[in-house]
Amino acid sequence: MSEPRDEMLHHEYDGIREFDNPPPPWIMWTLYGSIVFAIGYWGYYHTFPVGRLPRDNYTLEVARAAEAQLARMSGQEVTDEALLLAAQVPSRVEGGHAIFTQFCVPCHLEDASGSVGPNLTDAYWLHGAGPMQIRNTVQHGVPEKGMVAWLPQLGPERVDQVVTYVLTLREKNLPGKAPQGVLVEIPSASSAASSAATPAAATASSP
Length: 207
Fold this sequence. Notes:
By secondary structure, the protein is mainly α.
C-alpha cells in the first residue's frame, strides 16, 4: 500500500486546498471490479438472450401456474377465470394471434385498432368486455353489424384461443377507430392474473 505523499495541489477553491494523494488500491480495485461486473450484467441480462430479469421470471411462473390450473380444470365448462388463465400462457396467446391474423385482420386491422370492426384495444365495448361476453360475440357474431358467427368455421377450441388473444389487447389503448359502445373499467392484467392463477379462486368459480 502506497504511503500518502502529502503533495499539495496548486489550485484553491473557496479557501480550500487539497493533497494530491492517490486513493488506496482496494478502492481502485473495487471501482474496476464494479465496472467489469456492470458490463457483464448488462450483457447477460439486457444485450444477449441469456439471463432472465425478475420481471421475466415472474411472468414465466404465472404462465406455469396458469397452465397447471387449466390442466386441473380440463373437461369443465369454460368460464371467465379459465379464459383469463389461458391469456397468461404465451403459447395459447400466440395461437390465438395466428388465428386473429388469419381471420380478423380485414375488419379489425393487424394491431386490432379497428377498421370496419371496432377498436379492440380501447376501453369501450359494444357487447361487453368480459371474457365470456367476448367469447359469445365471437361464437355467435353480430349479424346486424356484419360480423359473422365464427363458431361453425373455427370450432370451440380455436374460438377460445382467439378470445385469449383479444383479452391481451384490452389495455393497449392504441389510436385508431373512434370509441364505440360503453366505457368499461377493466382490472389490470397483473391483478387479473394473480386472482385467476390462484387455485382456490379458480376452483370456487368452477361449476
